[in-house]
Every structure is written in C-alpha cells, then in structure tokens.
Amino acid sequence: MDVLACLLRVQPGWKGAVWGNSYAGIKAHELETREIPALAELEAAWIEIAREQKKEAVNALREEKITLGVPYTFPDGQSGTIQTRDEIDIRNIQTNVLNAMALTGQAVTLQFRDEADTTHEMTAEQMIAMGIAVGQRGSNIYIVSWAHKDAIDALTTAEEIEAYDFTTGWPG
C-alpha cells in the first residue's frame, strides 16, 4: 500500500504511526508528534498540481501555434506563410518593418520571401501592414491561451481539469 493510500484511510488531524517504518522520510516514531495532512489539503494540492500541468500544456501549445507561422495574403494576391519559427524570423520581420517605416511615402519596392521561398514585392506601407498582421496573430494566440488558463483556474476538481480540452478556439 502506498503512502497516499495510507493517508486517505486516516482521519483529518490524526496523529500516530503509519504502516511500515516511515512516511516521506519521517520515521514512524517521529510521526507520533506530527499531524497527518487532512484529506482536503491533499486534494487541494493535487488540484493545484493538475491545474499547473494543464496550464503548462496550454503554454506549450501556444508556443507551437506561434512557431507555425502566419498565413497571409500578400499584396500581389498570392497566399503564403510568414515564418515565425524563432527569434531570427521575428527579428527579420521587425527589421523589414523598421526599414519600411523609414521609407514610408517614398516610391520604393520592398521584397519579402515567405516560407515557400516565394518573393513578394510590396510598398513600404504594405510591409508595415504585413508586420502588423504578424503582431495581431501573436496577440490573438496569447488571448486564446489566457482564456484557456482562466477557464482552468475556474475548474474545481482534478477530474474537470484533466478533462478540459484546451485545443479548441485557436486561430487557424
């Protein structure tokens, strides 16, 4: 019989020895002066562990969604994906947008290469709009993750938390 099963058979506030020689590294003779945690405390701890694990899974899915890239219809009418795999991709987008900001109002043609290695030409204003679309998608992904975490925080049992489906509602 494991320690948790043993604890679940005692009454809250019970003091005394447990079956076997020790509980969590405490010798049986030392337990006579220590209080065994109440069942409610154990359940609350288990619920908190389940909640944190589910929220970590939400975080992992959020990061996965971010790194999948941003589906985008470019000014030339072609659809493609703006890569957001890592900090280098994000830095490249930011650099393009900063350059475009400096060139706003000028008759320039800027180029951007998407995930499929298709080059798209656009104006400075169109490059800025593309950067805004990337930022909005990231924000929308975070908003969904926050909603899932809030929903998880509102659940009251470990069973509800474990059954909660956080894979819905994400931007496509």
Q: Which strand order do you get reading across the main beta sheet?
A: 1-2
Q: How far is it from the N-terminal to the C-terminal residue, by CA?
A: 48 Å
What is the H-and-E element order? HEEHHEEHEEHH
Structural class based on helices, strands and sheet pairing: mainly alpha
Unreliably modeled segments: 1-23
Whole-number radius of gyration? 27 Å
User: Mind summarizing the main beta sheet?
Assistant: 2 strands, antiparallel
Number of strands: 6
Overall tally of domains: 2
What's the pLDDT, averaged over the residues? 85
Q: What percent of residues adopt helix (DSSP H or I)?
A: 40-55%
Fold and architecture overview:
This protein has 172 residues and is mainly alpha-helical. The chain has two domains: 3-53, no CATH class; 62-163, no CATH class. The chain is built from six helices and six strands, in the order H-E-E-H-H-E-E-H-E-E-H-H. It has helices at residues 3-8, 28-31, 39-67, 87-103, 124-154, 158-163; strands spanning 22-23, 26-27, 70-73, 79-82, 110-113, 119-122. Strands 1-2 form a two-stranded antiparallel ribbon. A two-stranded antiparallel sheet has the order 3-4. A two-stranded antiparallel ribbon has the order 5-6. A hairpin with a 2-residue loop joins strand 1 and strand 2. Residues 1-23 have low confidence and may be disordered.
Describe, in short, the structure shown.
The chain is mainly alpha-helical and 172 residues long.
Spell out the key features of this protein.
172 residues, mainly alpha, 2 domains, two-stranded antiparallel sheet
Layout of strands and helices, then pairs:
Layout: H1 3-8, E1 22-23, E2 26-27, H2 28-31, H3 39-67, E3 70-73, E4 79-82, H4 87-103, E5 110-113, E6 119-122, H5 124-154, H6 158-163
Helix pairs in contact: 3-5, 4-5
